[in-house]
Design a protein that fits this description.
8 helices, BirA Bifunctional Protein, domain 2, five-stranded mixed beta sheet, eight-stranded antiparallel beta sheet, Trna Endonuclease, Chain: A, domain 1
Length: 334
């Protein structure tokens, strides 16, 4: 596949994903008098050098794809600080980078699956763990990217689109100037919880090495999700367990339907129970109670670490002091 066939497939298949409405979202945020185009990518945003960005993305946090060193392919979000005719002064992007850095600091879980690197004078840096954008990178000439990379032989259109869907929340936070985004899409319905037994994100489509299983956060999250879902299906039945149910612009890791009530499970891969609780609590509260109504009868934090004495005391305090129906469950995958 070359960059043109990939962008063609992405444009065509995006109709089944939230990212397919990107130009509608952009029209609402700018605001624009009309959509510049319906597709994510257009001829003007595709380079015969093997990369592409979303139409209108030069002065934005851009959805970006591209071949690297002929053997791999990247997909994710980027800032292009390379001056051009459309954006001669790239400093207009600096406030957006500041917003991104605040978001990384406040919501690190949104970035857990991504890596970070840059290009400068046509040379790529090493690949770093995701972090705030360093100040020394924020200058003309840099191209800053974060996301995922895959071997060229393993390019998966659905995986790219799903990753773009997951990254939309980051894009909205950076670009939206805090206004709500409304569009005639399924995203409008996110505040209305609809339970489904979707399992499409459960299956791990290829075997992973022992090193990847031990060190890759995304893979470990999937393995925990798989084991948790299996245990819950044995207890509640497969028709009462769902994965990645959409709500409030996010996706709940696992949902159990218990008669006419729901239990929400949020999985974290922190090193300690306290870390898992800290990362999951805000998300679960948002899923279960936003914007001021109870959707879930119980909320459960799931992690690999055992619940230590202080973390157990904390969970008990939250439950008794605030009458919060919260618990912690340990899932071991090794």
């Amino acid at each position: 596949m070359d960059i043109y066939s990939i962008t063609d497939e992405l444009n065509k298949e995006s109709k089944h994903y939230r990212i397919g409405n990107l130009q509608e979202f952009r029209k609402a945020m700018k605001p624009l008098s009309r959509k510049p185009i319906n597709d994510i990518f257009s001829n003007k945003s595709i380079s015969n050098e093997g990369w592409a960005f979303h139409t209108g993305g030069l002065d934005e946090l851009q959805f970006n794809i591209g071949f690297e060193k002929k053997s791999s392919f990247r997909y994710g979000l980027a800032f292009s600080l390379q001056p051009n005719r459309s954006v001669p002064d790239v400093s207009i992007l600096y406030p957006l980078i500041k917003k991104l850095n605040y978001l990384i600091r406040e919501n690190p879980e949104l970035f857990a699956s991504y890596k970070l690197w840059f290009f400068y004078k046509n040379k790529r840096s090493e690949i770093f763990p995701m972090s705030e954008i360093p100040t020394e990178w924020i200058q003309p000439g840099y191209f800053i990217f974060f996301g995922k990379k895959t071997p060229r032989s393993e390019i998966n259109i659905q995986e790219i689109l799903q990753t773009f869907d997951d990254m939309l929340d980051i894009y909205f936070e950076v670009q939206s100037n805090n206004q709500e985004i409304h569009s005639n899409t399924d995203a409008e319905q996110d505040e209305i919880f609809v339970f489904n037994t979707n399992k499409q994100n459960l299956v791990l489509t290829r075997p992973y090495s022992s090193v990847k299983r031990a060190t890759n956060i995304e893979i470990r999250h999937s393995l925990i999700q798989q084991k948790l879902a299996s245990e819950l299906e044995n207890k509640y039945g497969s028709n009462n367990v769902g994965l990645e149910n959409k709500l409030n612009g996010g996706k709940i890791d696992v949902v159990v339907k218990d008669k006419d009530k729901y239990i929400f499970y949020e999985i974290k891969t922190g090193n300690t129970a306290r870390s898992c609780i800290r990362q999951a609590l805000g998300q679960l509260m948002d899923y279960a109670y936003w914007p001021g109504k109870e959707i879930a009868e119980k909320i459960v934090i799931v992690g690999e670490p055992n619940l230590d004495a202080k973390s157990r005391e904390y969970i008990s305090f939250l439950s008794k002091r605030f009458l919060l129906p919260i618990s912690y469950e340990t899932i071991k995958i090794d």
